[in-house]
Structure formats: C-alpha cells, structure tokens
Amino acid sequence: MRTLHYGFWAALCAISLCAPAARGQQQDQSTPIPAYKSPLGAGDVNNPTDTNSEQVAPDTSSLSGFQNFSLGLPTARSYWQPHAELSLAADSNGLETPTGSSWSMFGVLSGGVDVHRTSGNSNLSLSYMGGGTFSNESDVGDGSFQNLNVSDRYSFRRLTISAQDAFSYLPEDAIGFAGLGGTLIPGGAGPGGLGSAFTPGQSILIGQGQSIGNASDVETDVALSGRSSLTFVGGYSLLRYLGSSLLDYNSAIFRVGYNYQISARNTMSVLYQYNRITYDNFDQSISAHSAELSYGRRVTGRLAFQVAAGPQITLATVPINGTPVVSGPTTGGSVTQIGWTLNASLNWQLKRGGLSAQYFHGVTGGSGVLGGAIEDTFTGTATRQLSRTISGSIDGGYSRVAGVPLSDVLAGGAPNQNYEYFFGGGSLSRPLSRTLALNFSYQLQYQTSNAAVCGGTICGTNIIVHLVSLGVTWRERPLLF
C-alpha cells in the first residue's frame, strides 16, 4: 500500500538494537521482567488491560446500560500513562481491490495518553491515540488518524449518571485500517468497529477515503431498592465519508430497562429499545423496536459475561434498496419486518492469559453501502503468556451484512446485496525494557459478496488482504497525580 522512506528502516533497527543494551544497564538480570501489557486494548476505557481482583474495583455498571460488563474498574488512585509506537508494515493489497496482489510497504507513527481521575463522586477515564501513515507511493500517499474516548460516571446516594463519547477520524474504512502495528484492531476502540447497538458500525471493506465516526451516550440509573434499579439511556451516533458518494447516516437510540440483582454475581434485566436511522444523502429512514431479556454474571478480575436477546420489529420507508449509493426521485411506501436481536459479550481472565468474545445480530445503517441492513458480527481474541518474556495473541472474526428485503414492497425487485467478511491473525510481543516492547503481527482479511457492485473505491466480489507489521512500542508505567 505504501513505499517506505529508507530512514524509517534505520530508525526502527536502531531502536530495536539499542533497547536491549539499555535494559542490561538499567536492571539486574536476576530480576524477573514484568509481563508487558499490550496497548491493543488501551483505547477502550471500559476494559482495562491490567485486571485482577487485587488491582481493580468491582464493576457496578447496569446490565441494561450502554456499557458492556468489564472485569473491573481502575482503583481509586488517579494516574496518567503516555505511550507511543513506531511500526513498519507490509500489505499485499493496499488499495483493497479484487485484483490487488502486489506487496507494498508503509510506516506508522502514533502516540497517545490514557488518563484516569477519581475525584469525589466522579470517575473520569480518557484515552487518546493519534498518528499517521507515511508512504512515497503516489496512488496511496500519506494519511493521519485520530481516536478519542472519554467517559465519566457520577455517583450519588440513589442516582448514578454516566456519559461517554467515542470519536474517530480514519484515512479509510475502520476494518480496512485494522492491524497497523497494533494501533487498531477490528471491532476495537472507537465508533468504527464491528456491529453494536450503540455505535454506527463499519463492517464492509470500502477502500481508501477519510471517514469520521462519533458515538455519544448518556445513562441514568435510579436505585429502587438494594437489589433493583431502573436504567434510562439516550444516545446518538453518526458516520461520515468525506469526499465520497457513500451513504452518510445517523442513529438515535433510546433504552429503558429494569434490573434485578439475583445474587452477588448474577443479574437479570428486561429492557425496551428504540433505534431510528436516517441518511443525509439518501431518501430512507428505518425505525427498530426491540424488547429484550438479559442475563449477566461478573466475578471481579476473572469473568464478565452478559447476553441480551428478544424480538425486533423494523419499520422502513421505501426505497429499501440492496444496491449501494442510490439517489434521485423515489416512490413512497413502507415495509414492516419482524425479526430478532441478540447482543452478547464475554471477558474471561485465566492464570496465564485470557479470552474475550462478542456477538451482535440486529438492524444497522448498512456501513455506508446499503440503505439499511441486517447484520451478524462475531469477534474473538485469546491471549497467552508463552514464556517469561514473550506473550502472544490470536484473534478472528466474521460479519455478514445483508440489505433489508425488497420483496414485501416492490414486486420483482433486485436480489438483496450481502457482504461476508472474515479476518484472522496473531501477534507476538517481547519486552525490551520495563517500558519498551517489540511487537510482530500478521492478519488476513477476506471479503466476498453475492454480486459485483461498487462500494467506495472497491468494485468486484472477492477481496483478500495480507498484512504483516513489526513495531516498537513505548508505554510508560502509570504516573500518579
């Protein structure tokens, strides 16, 4: 995808060679090196990477709220933690075209900071990452990216107010930008990940082109008794494709739920959710109503599991079109579809590693290509401490995005367009010092569709991408304030 400046090779090699020497001077070789904490999860303020029952406090978030259960929340001490990364990557299909097969190289330079501040009844978390990719290749060029997540929680005697905002600016679609030296991963930080009820979602490879995503949510929890509570959530998200004819869309969501604490570790809830999706450059709107029954179980520092499922009724105006980027005069009409929705997540901390997984099924905005879609997404990650100094992880996922059916409204309409996307890969990390680590990763991405149509800069049915990266990450230990 990009041709690299020769100076980048020299810088990367210099850091890799000098860091072990510095380590030998700074610490006694008889002292065990602490396990390096990967920065891959650093952008998610709700899921701390360093989690066990002695270092985190219990997660008391509502089962029917906008946040998934975590293994625990940071302790009451305030801290900030800067980090930076320099990576070199090789891409087999940089422009994400069906005929792409030539390898290209590019560099990634990023930096950021994580902040946690506890003051009175406030619990603030902030995570920022920004940087750029650089290349000499004229048809790709350089790019920049920004990712900011902010959340806060105010606790009173019987009332808790939570708010969160997630913003991203990317040089291409979120899943195509995945894996750059560990900077981003599919379904990872920011509002551009694979499907979720409270993010706009980006689950179709569409190639180069700047995009902006933002998701804002506010939640109020009212305690009725020691075991029961009411939850009210309002949220708004958007996805914009700059300089493109793709579909810009907005999603407004409202949820109300009743929660009951069965035991110290088990919770159940019932909730109602309304979601309305509109488009800026397409005469289409979608309203989805769902009623869900939810169950959650959490053990601080060890296990966080929840699942919510129920019927979903979707009302959509015509045109309901399975082909991308439709504009011009349209005819009036509507269609009602009865389906189902499911959202589940799992975080499981083991002695020398951990497992995490998430699944979503429901109505989404169509990732800028379809005017409304039924989406299934699954992502999973397994981490393992392979030795005293080397840790590894494997990850994979699948998504299927299908246009809302036409047959109920337009007789003889075109078949629904659908996209299937797979990714899988792994990474290795080795500490070079207490704050430096060397990372290597590989990822495979594959997408197929049932008809040759154009979405963004991609025209065709099958796309395959191999991505390999090598990088050095610096992450300072938490600095108290």
Could you provide a short overview of the structure?
This protein is mostly beta strands and 481 residues long.
Textual characterization of the structure:
With 481 residues, the protein is mostly beta strands. The chain has one domain (6-480): Porin, CATH 2.40.160. 4% of the residues lie in helices and 55% in strands. It is built from one helix and 23 strands. The strands form three sheets. It has an 18-stranded antiparallel beta barrel. Strand 18 and strand 19 (436-449) form a beta hairpin. The protein is globular.
Helix content: under 10%
Mean pLDDT: 77
Biggest sheet architecture = 18 strands, antiparallel, barrel
Number of helices: 1
**Helix/strand order, N-terminal first:** HEEEEEEEEEEEEEEEEEEEEEEE
How would you classify the helix and strand content by structural class? mainly beta
Rg of Cα set: 23 Å
Q: How many domain regions?
A: 1
In the CATH hierarchy, what is the class? Answer: Mainly Beta
Predict the CATH topology.
Porin
CATH architecture: Beta Barrel
Please state the overall shape, judged from the principal axes of the Cα atoms: globular
Total strands: 23
β-strand percent reads over 45%
